[in-house]
Every structure is written in structure tokens, then in C-alpha cells.
Specification:
2 domains; elongated; 5-stranded mixed β-sheet; 610 residues; 24 helices; 17 strands; 16% strand; Beta-lactamase; alpha+beta
Length: 610
Amino acid sequence: MAFTFDKKTILTVGVIAVALVYIVQLFNLQILDEEYKINASNNAFRYDIRYPARGLILDRNGKILVGNETAYDIMITPLEVKGLDTADLCSVFNLDINDVRAKLKEYHRDRRRIGYQSLPFVKQVPGWQYSLFLEKSYKFPGFSAVSRTIRNYPFSAGANLFGYISEVDTAFLRRNPDYRRGDYVGRTGIERSYEHILKGKKGYNIFLRDVHNKVKASFSDGQYDLDAIPGKSITSSIDGELQQYGELLMTNKVGSLVAIEPSTGEILTLVSSPGIDIDKLAHINKFFGEISADPLKPMFNRAVMSPYPPGSVFKLVNALIGLEEGVLTHDTRYSCAGRYPVGRGVGCHPHPSPTDLTQSIYMSCNTYYCYVFRNIIDNPKYPNVAAGFNRWKELVESFGFGSKLNTDFHAEQGGTLPTTETYDRIHGKNRWSSLSIISLAIGQGEIGTTPLHLANLAATIANRGHFYTPHIVKGSPDTLINSDYSEKNFTKVKPEHFLEVIEGMYLAVNSLPGSGATARIAAVKGLDICGKTGTSQNPHGKDHSVFICFAPKDNPKIAVAAYIENAGFGATWAAPIASLLVERYLNQKVDRKDLEAYVIQGNLIRNVLK
């Protein structure tokens, strides 16, 4: 027998089915799901946030670079504030009584919107002040405290490297909905790059309120409380003692000092000077205005953000390109009478002449590289100047210049490298030649490189033609590094060509007196330092002092770039600073005490402020 349903029956069955679904769901939510009861009765509960300890930042040897200490945020629940001893509260926290009264008046005006929320009143109170608050807490109804951690810095160095944390603002919250007001986030440096590892996860304690909205006790004996999960610690590639020593050498100087381990790409030291005072870093909000107004821009990380002209250290790149392109050999010789004799003339310092390739490096002859550069650009195997230039640019880019190196340091900038369009715009299309752009021969003109790029160049030469992407963190159980950091980046210059250049760098440092070598001040017995000086022209004042080096010559352990603004010749300041850093790292001590004292006591800031 077939059953048939009229429209009324179908509608009735449908209504009953929907009703059953709702009944089952309501039973589940109201009877079975205790967590829903907690959320639905939110007005009856008070949630005290438990903030996690932020992960530590360790140096490559396991020493703590960035640690934690306990502080407290004093919270206010405005609707519970009655009979407050305002004067005593101000004395405990050193507050202005008029500011407190104004804030309380504002809370009273917004009391309906605020309800029984607890809001921060005084942030990051130290332990001694918190203890004083506890002793007098009966005078301050409606006030409570939340434990937090703030950063401390056992090595008293590395502020710009580590970066700072600060409370999230409205703009940040719009972009990052996982955060809430009162949370702190890494804003710069390692703190920002590794925020996702360091931050941890918040927890909470739930307290029950009575009918008068007074907190009675922990809800359900803490069964539904959630423990905070501390952030994971990071093992950095930084050598804490070397970082501290590097900053000492850069006292009262403007510029950068960067050291890399060539065999891994790990950054050993990254100094930007002058930097943020480490003692102000944990309380950056208090000092932010003062730091921002400093004309020397301590928040600007010159090591990774400033695109300087590389100066004569760039001759190494042009030598390598000349060898690769077949326009240069070890025995190629050019005479120098104090200037390049064609065009407007590029000057050169006095030195023995003529020079071959090795001599041109350790004597740093400008004229030699004007010849080399023009031979690269005007190479007859290319149909025109633009094609020769593009090949030169392609080889330069293979060293990492002209773009970001893709490190794990978020503020890194890519520097600048000109294109054919650059010169079409400056000189007119098809109206420029190798002579028009001759400044590139000696690392001047339209090229800009960061000190990190220059340290990477030193590491690339040390490795005979390849580099690992520089990075600031070592692999550890809590921190797996990007696999890209273990891959070799090869230049487009054959490894055998690097041997010629390395010999010139070795002789620049280790030649006998009277040889014309420019970097003899950097020599350290037994370390076989290989280096190249640079004096970068500066239209706004005294020239910049530049030096790159690596050591030892065979099986190199460290590569360094020093860039000192308004400091003159490369051998005057940059070479001593870089070589002292190398000596300290490889020997674990410095024997050249007179040179060390000369560097530390040198004050070059006045040159920048003129």
C-alpha cells in the first residue's frame, strides 16, 4: 500500500524535525557543554590573563643575550573603585595626582561601556614597587596586579640587533587579529623576525563573581584555568663577547661593523653605531621620543639599511669580472702617473708604477681599474656598450649586490645598482659610454651597498666564489633554520680566478714596509689576514673609511666589513677596527694594546655633526 503526504503533513513533519534539532543542540550546549556555560555566563566570571614568559635569545655558545625579569601591570576595574586613597596611590607609583584624577573621571564617564573589565593603569612596575602596593592594597579597592616579564640584557650590548618589544596599537591590531590590547610584540630586530617563536601563548585564571559582582573564588577549583605556554628560546649565531667588543671599538663613531662565518653564513657580530642605549631598550616607550629626536638616528640600523658607495673595496669585484671576461690576466700591467689620463680624469694616490693585477690590489690603484672597467664594458664580443654593461651587471648581481640577500633580519635593504635605463635617463638614450660611467670602476657613482653586503663579499672571496645567505639564528631543537641558509649561492666567476685576488688581499696586509701596501696596519702575526682598504668619496663631508677582510687565508673562520662614516682613508680607522675584531675572535685576546686604545678613545662623531 503506497503512502501519500499532502502539503500540510509535509510542513508539519518539517517543523517537528527542525524543532528536534534545536532541542538536541540546546540540551548539548546547556546541559552537556560546560565550556559553553562558562562563555555564555561571561558576565558572571572574571578572567585574569596569564602572560607567558617570552623566549630567551642565546648566543652561539649558549650564553643568554636577552633574558627576562618579572614586572607587574597594575590593573583597575573602575566599577569596583570606592573610597580610594588617591594621594597614597600616587606616592606608591610616583604618579601625578591630577593625571590620576583625570583618568578616574574618564573611567567614570565610560563606566557603562567598560563594565567590569580590568584595564591597565600602571605598566611594568618593578618588584619592589609591587611589594609596596601589596602592603597598602586595602587602600586601593578595584586595583589588582598581573605578572608579566620584561627583557633584560646580560651582555649590555646588541640593542639594534635584538630589537625592542612594545604594546600593540590599533593599527597593528587591525592587521593582526590574533593579538589583543595589552599584548606586546617584537617591533624590530630579532624580536620581530622571530616573534612567532618567542611570543608564547597566553593563559588565564577564571574567578566567579557573586550577585554583587564581587569576586568570590576560583571557578570550579581552577579546572577550566589555562596555563600560559612560555615562548621558545632561540639560539642565535651571534658571539655575545665579540658583539660587546665590536660595540666598544665603535664607541663615538658613526658606521657599522659586521662579521660573518664564511663556512656557514652565520652572522657573528652586527654593530650599528651609534645605536640604542641597551639600558633604555626594555622601557623603549619611555625613551622613544628622546631616541627618535637624536640627530645621529640611533634607531636606524646602518649595517643592513644604509646603501653606501663601497669605494675601492669594489675593485675586487671588477678584478674578478675582468678575469672572468678574459680582459685581464695576472700579468696585465698599467702605468699610473697619479690619474687616469682619459676624460675628466680619475685621481690616484702616489704609489710605485706600473702595477700588475696583484700589485693593483694591494696598492689600490684607481687608474688600473679604470682601464679594467672600460675593457669589460667595451669588450668587442658584445655588440654595444649597453650589452657589455648588462653583462657586467649580471656578474655583479651574482655576488648579491643590488638586491636583498634574503637574510632573516627584517629591516634588510637591497642597496642600489644602476641599469641601462638609469644612464639613458641621466645622459640620454644611446648617448653614454664606458667613460660616462667610469666612477663604477672604483665603487663610486650610482652604486650603493650595505655593510652586510660588503661583509658577504669578504665571505664570498674567502670561500673562493660562493656564499651562504647570511643569517642571525643557528639551528636548535626549538628553532629549525630555513633550509635555504645551508645552500651555496655561487657567483658567475670561476673559483680559480679568486686565487689571484686573494693573493693581492694577503699582500695588502702582510707586505714589507715600502711595498706600497695600503693595509699593513691590519697585520696580526700568525693570522694571515687578507684585506682590502677603501676610501669612499662623500660629497657631504670627510670621506668614509672602509675595510673588508677575512682570516686565516686558508680555511677562513671570519669575514669582516667595517664602514666608518666621515673617517678618511680606509687604513686610518676601518682597517684597525676590523683587524682588532678578527684578532679578538681568533686569538680570544688582543695583544696590540696601543692600537686598541687608539681606536676605543677615538671620537669621530664631531666629523659627522659638522
